[in-house]
Amino acid sequence: MVKACQDYGFFKLINHGVSFDLISNLENHALNFFNHPQSLKHMAAPPHDPFGYGSSRIGSNGDVGRVEYLLLSPNSLLILHQLPVLFRCALEEYMVAMKKMCCEVLEVMAEGLGIGERNALSRVVGDERSDSCFRLNHYPPVAAEEDGKMLIGFGEHTDPQIISVLRSNNESGLQICLNDGSWVSIPPDPTSFFINVGDSLQVMTNRRFKSVKHRVLAESKQSRMSMIYFGGAALSEKIAPLKSLMSKDEESLYKEFTWLEYKNAAYKSRLADNRLSLFEK
Ligand code: GA4
């Protein structure tokens, strides 16, 4: 796991123990939601709020993609009462399972990194004030006349949080960027999860782990759906290299900042920007 995070910032998680029923129950509710008419879906989009339903636009700085989505936080779930109760229950249950899984993965990572304190990373995401969010992305099928064109579903970017846990249906599209700049397609696997190292974990490991650049191409003749949990820190948490990981004379490669500061900067940026460069020493 440590080697994968160092070399790619990405790996596939198998034998994760999350029940398939929990996953497919949420998937069914989500597909049902995306099958509703556009006008109805837009009712689940509070104005000036990144959360809720969105289509084509990603963030508020001019990025677009061939995707529609629901972006949620545990709190926004309470406000979006337009969503059916059973859908909200499925979302809540899934988010709880993802938070637990993020913590387990982060504990294994800490152990692999040789950090004595097993919860040095997991306590940040496990904190009850942690600012995590969740995204359902629905990529419509590509029409025959569009076949062969390179259509961008979700443009290249790194995730700002600590780790992200992605699960998709059996349709392709996800690609990750390797060190040499080449793009590699990730074969879909609906029974597994894919873990991305985010910008915050790159900082917490003083660049031992790499925040992975990834994107989604719209290339499938069936619709692709992915669900991603972004495990983040509490707003007031200082994002800095773990002392227990640093060798004697090692210095932090980053200026000090809180997750709130990083998040504010991220929300002002364009999707493909290198957000960490602002905080490098
Ligand atoms: C990328 C990872 C998550 O999907 C997200 C995205 C967020 C958004 O869609 O509102 C951002 C993007 C993401 C980073 C830069 C800004 C903010 C869109 C955008 C252009 C929810 C997140 O946390 O950062």
Describe the protein's architecture and organization.
It is a single chain. The protein is an alpha+beta fold and 281 residues long. 29% of the residues lie in helices and 25% in strands. The protein has helices spanning 2-7, 20-34, 38-42, 74-79, 85-112, 122-126, 199-204, 259-268; strands at residues 10-13, 52-58, 63-72, 133-139, 151-157, 163-168, 174-177, 183-185, 193-197, 214-218, 224-231, 238-239, 257-258. The strands form three sheets. A seven-stranded antiparallel beta sheet has the order 1-9-6-11-4-3-2. Strand 2 and strand 3 (63-72) form a beta hairpin. Helix 2 (20-34) crosses helix 5 (85-112). The longest helix has 28 residues, at 85-112. It is globular, with a radius of gyration of 18 Å. The mean pLDDT is 95. Gibberellin A4 binds next to strand 3, strand 4 and helix 8.
Topology (elements, then pairings):
Blueprint: H1 2-7, E1 10-13, H2 20-34, H3 38-42, E2 52-58, E3 63-72, H4 74-79, H5 85-112, H6 122-126, E4 133-139, E5 151-157, E6 163-168, E7 174-177, E8 183-185, E9 193-197, H7 199-204, E10 214-218, E11 224-231, E12 238-239, E13 257-258, H8 259-268
Antiparallel strand pairs: 1-9, 2-3, 3-4, 4-11, 5-10, 6-9, 6-11, 7-8, 7-10, 12-13
Helix pairs in contact: 2-5
The chain binds gibberellin A4.
Residues 50, 58-59, 61, 63, 71, 133, 135, 157, 159-160, 230, 266-267, 269-271 line the site of gibberellin A4 (GA4).
Quickly count the helices: 8
Characterize the largest beta sheet: strand count, sense, and whether it forms a barrel. 7 strands, antiparallel
User: Whole-number radius of gyration?
Assistant: 18 Å
Spatial strand arrangement across the major sheet: 1-9-6-11-4-3-2
The backbone outline, from C-alpha atoms, is globular
Q: Oligomeric form of this entry?
A: single chain
Distance between the termini: 28 Å
The pLDDT mean sits at 95
Derived from helix and strand composition plus strand pairing, the structural class reads: alpha+beta
What's the helical proportion of residues?
25-40%
Q: Which ligands occur here?
A: gibberellin A4
Low-confidence stretches: none
